[in-house]
Amino acid sequence: MNKRYLQHGAQPRRSALTVALALGLGFTGLAYGQATTGSIFGSAPVAAGETVVITGQSGIARTVTVDESGRYSANSLPVGMYTVTLMRDGQTVSTRNNVTVKVSTGTDVSFDGAQNAQNLEGLTVTANSLPSIDVTGVDSRTVITAQQLRQLPLARSAEAIALLAPTAVQGSSFFTGPTGNSLVSFGGSSVTENAYYINGMNVTDPLNGLGGINLPYGSIDQEEVLTGGYGAAYGRSDGGVINQIGKRGTNEWHFGAQALYTPGSLRSDPRNIYVPSNGSLYQYRNDNKTSEIVESAYVGGPIIQDRLYMFASAEGHRTNGKSVGTAAGGTETVYSYNDPSWYGKIDWNINSSNVLELTGASTKTSYNGNIYGYDNDTRTMGDYLYADTHTKTAASMWIAKYTGYLTDDLTVSAQFGKQNTDLYTQLPADFNADLIAVLSPDQQNPAYSGGGAGIGNTQTVLTTTDPAHQTKGTNYRLDVTYVLGDHTLTAGIDNQRTQDLSDGDYIPTNAGYAWEYNKLNDPSADISEGQVDSPSNYPGGADGYYVAQYRFRTAASVRVEQRAQYVEDAWQVSDNWLVKLGLRNDQFTNFNSDGQAYIRQTTPQWAPRVGFSWDVNGDSTFKIYGNAGRYYLALPTSVALRGASGSYYTRVFYTYTGIDQATGYPTGLTPINTINGVGAEFSENNEYGQAPDPRTVTATSLKAQYQDEYILGFDKQLNSAWTYGAKATYRSLKNEIDDTCNIELFTAKAESLGLDTANLRGCYFFNPGRGATFQVPDGNGGYGEMSFTKEELGFPQAKRNFYALNLYLDHPFDGTWWGRVDYTYSKSYGNSEGQVRSDIGQSDIAATVDWDYPSLMEYAGGLLHNDRKHQLKIYGGYQFTPEWNVSGNIAVLSGAPYSCLDFYGPDGTAPAYAGPYYHWCAGQPSPAGTAGRLPWQKIASFNVEYRPAFADHKLAFNANVYNVFNSQETTYQYEYNTSSYGRPRGFTTPRYVRFGVSYDF
Question: CA-to-CA distance for 32 and 630, rounded, in angstroms?
Fold first, then answer.
């Protein structure tokens, strides 16, 4: 062991790991992304009668004894500020003020040399001199505090904070959370594979896994962003974890208010979008601007001094704007969003051994809009046409948590909570039920449409939902920690139930369908090989143009049960070595609308977690760490909507010889023959509204999605002011769930086995790249089985690999400034992004187009959408004077790879589907992500704050400029090889200015 000796014969300082785990303290709930507490540990010179008193602003007061080796530790401390005092025989020896306890982190507060103080009450230091490296952690996390959030120029969301973390990148704008929040991809995973937590409760969207509930921005005490390596106590994520810790009351009453204003007049003009093939205007966007007002207030303090505390906050967020639609639509929408939220917390220190916490939070978003005509030539708004669809989403949660420090060695934690989200959609009062929506007008025959963006109409409602739609989640868990010598043993259960109630989508027009235009590259090819005839055989289809009546309807109430048990040992192998050994067992059961299980993954799914931390010098100045783990992921509730309940998804195909100039409807229709007959409805997935037998939905041996991860890194002090480090990460997706829809293969197999082909499903859930057995009703109450080898199914192994090297340099706040620089080199490659497809915006969880037919996966391997080869992130703040502070946030990322998707093969056929979803381009193979890269994203944002001395620095004025240089680059684009190929679908957010005033008392 590397020993650091003190002068005057003092005892050597103990390794931070030794201190942390001596007496078995300091590790409860530390290395997990859903924790709400941290710990303080340290060493002191050995002397009789020594204790350490730890006093927090929220009434927590812990007195711990310094053992005979000079070690002490206090665990499960709520996050916040503390004073740590070394006492000897009732007198103060030394004090450390302003010690910040961060979530999941151990803070080393040692008193080396304190016995030499002549004035026992005169040795007081601030926390700036404390070690900045947490040698107790083996995971990968970024923690941002409320003080940093107050300074940094960020969008006001949990996801914007999460983007500060290495390997975190902005998700595709195709996908948003339940209240419209943008999403994040971590370590190459899809945006549906993350977990969201508030004060220890899982608040991830139960429907699709797309985002979760956010706290009001000003109520966030700390946000922990976990990008890998968390312990066995937690799971259900193979992406990242966003863990928000809300503020709590203290022994002093505080209140405050804030107002923020973002004027639309100071926003830069968004870029217009043009059709790449001919330069014509696709969408005029220069006037698509918004203004925003945010008003918030909070109050917190002691209801009973040192015993009972409260904190409450509320925020109102109003947005007004206008948006010009596509040139083909000829409309402009004037809209408003109203997004109120609130948060409340009660903390009851029943006594020194028992603590009860109650948390509640809610966030809502409500949209209203009116649609007007718009003249793209004169850039002027026309007459009022009709009201847009009104939507409202209201998400809420509550949690009760008990923590009992039953003995010095035994800690028990139990929590129970619920969340509810109402997803309300109301058709506008003047909705025109007689006007049929027109899809893909840019795919119309230019001989009839005039070319360009095509001819559309003013119908903006394609589908609507049941206004009673609601999702629910219930969380309950129990954790028990016991100290046994050098081992800290933790075991528990982690259970969750999610429900999707009254879910359903349908086309609300009287016709019950939409017109959908398309074109085949090879006019002589079938629309769907062997199932839908070629349009060239019918009038108007010689050039491959056709149109379809698109019909869609779903309805269901379903649920998912997720249970888990775990055990973990934090083992102090030696003074400098910590090893964490964990094992988790997850069970998932998905139920259909009849309450029947259609996926039952309840046999053991063992997820081992192993990690280590080596405190090289024994003084928290140099740590080498690593971990390896397996992470399982359940399918969310939405999968049952189309996959296990009665869904209706058909088309009727036609050629046409004209287009109505007023409505965009096709004229001169001739029905095209399908396998079901001329002009008959055809479903590519055999979805004709029938409710499936739950035993026939999936492969009989369906395994859950899981991923393996390996991390190795180090943290080292460069000097007393700087820390630097490096970390290597490797992730490999080992199993995936999706659906396959090769009805021709299923039919041939069923016929060979003498099974009735009428009982076949159009699609089955399976594990891509593996053999599968599917059950088919035999008509006599029993089942026949169709077994396929991997070779018969014809698919490659599902593959998603990610590796990254992160380098960082960190300067903690020293009273004047703080800052951090992260550079990450990474690669995300394979043949599957995961549960969704960002390149085409497909959000059908585990039911993407990818694995439906083997032809769709030819040349699918390559760079994946969430790949960013280079990432540079710089953020920090400078306190020039007590009155003036400047902060900044700079992000420079290489662009996402993009593909060129087309019809299949050299001749541009469609052996699987009637769309250009194949990895071919202009008759040549086109592997995923190899068509090129989008431009680099370069965003620099700055904030300046003034706190005048005459108001005792409690009053603050600030100005925030986002994207100072107004760099607007394409973030995703149209990837089908048509006249619109390369058309931008989204850009970097243009520059805007936000002004604020706040008062904190």
Answer: 15
Do strands 91-101 and 464-465 pair parallel, antiparallel, or not at all (unpaired)? unpaired
Residue 157 near residue 214, CB atoms below 8 Å: yes
Beta strands in 249-353 (DSSP E): 254-262, 273-274, 281-283, 290-304, 308-324, 331-338, 341-351
Q: CB–CB of 182/171 below 8 Å?
A: yes
What lies within 8 Å, CB to CB, of 620 at 6+ separation is 16, 108, 131, 133, 134, 135
Burial readout 220-254 (b: 16 or more C-beta within 10 A, e: otherwise): bbbbbbbbbbbbbbbbbbbbbbbbbbbbbbbeeee
Q: Any idea which residue has 């003074």 for tokens?
A: 575
| CB-based contact 96:130 (threshold 8 Å) | yes
Q: Helices (DSSP H) in 675-727: which residue ranges?
A: none
Angle at alpha carbon of residue 842, lines to 837 and 843, rounded to 5°: 100
Rg (CA), the chain: 30
| Pairing status of strand 884-893 against strand 937-946 | antiparallel
Please report the pLDDT score of residue 44 as a whole number: 81
Q: Which amino acid is at 295?
A: E
Could you give the CA distance from residue 239 to residue 955 in angstroms, rounded to a whole number? 40
Rounded distance, CA 653 to CA 670, Å?
9
Q: Which helix (H) or strand (E) holds 747?
A: helix 743-753
Residues 6+ apart with CB under 8 A from 689: 553, 646, 647, 648
Contact 697, 772 (CB under 8 A): no
- Taking the C-alpha atoms of residue 1001 and residue 999, their distance in angstroms, rounded to an integer, is 7
- Helical residues (DSSP H) of 78-237, grouped into ranges: 146-151, 158-162
DSSP β-bridge partners for residue 35: none
- Whether 342 contacts 196, CB under 8 Å: no
HSE, CB side, 13 Å, CA atoms: give it for residue 138. 26
pLDDT at 784: 95
Q: How far apart are the first and last CA of the chain?
A: 49
- Do residues 427 and 389 touch, judged by C-beta distance below 8 A? yes
183 class by beta-carbon count within 10 Å (0-12 exposed, 13-18 middle, 19+ buried): buried
- pLDDT means per 10 residues, the chain with 1001 residues, are 28 39 38 64 79 81 80 80 85 84 81 46 45 82 93 95 96 89 95 95 93 94 93 92 94 95 97 93 95 97 94 97 92 96 96 93 96 94 90 96 90 95 89 94 93 86 90 95 92 96 92 96 89 95 96 91 96 92 97 92 96 92 96 93 84 97 97 95 84 91 96 94 96 97 94 91 94 92 94 96 98 93 98 94 90 96 97 97 96 97 93 87 96 97 96 95 97 92 94 97 89
With a CB cutoff of 8 Å and minimum separation 6, the contacts of 623 are 133, 134, 135, 613, 614, 615, 616, 714, 715, 716
Q: Which residues, in sequence order, are CB contacts of 378 under 8 Å at separation 6+? A: none
3-class DSSP assignment, residue 613: strand
The amino acid present at 73, given as its one-letter code, is S
- Tell me the C-alpha distance between 219 and 240, whole Å: 22
Helix (H/G/I), strand (E/B), else coil: 23: helix
The kind and range of the H/E element at 892 are strand 884-893
Q: SS3 helix, strand, coil % of the chain, rounded to 5? A: 5, 50, 45
CB atoms within 10 A of CB 820: 17
Kind plus residue range of the DSSP H or E element containing 92: strand 91-101
What 8-state DSSP symbol labels residue 128?
Answer: G
Q: How far is CA 6 from CA 3, 94, 95, 555, in A?
A: 10, 17, 19, 72
Distance CA 849, CA 835 (A): 11
pLDDT given at position 26: 37
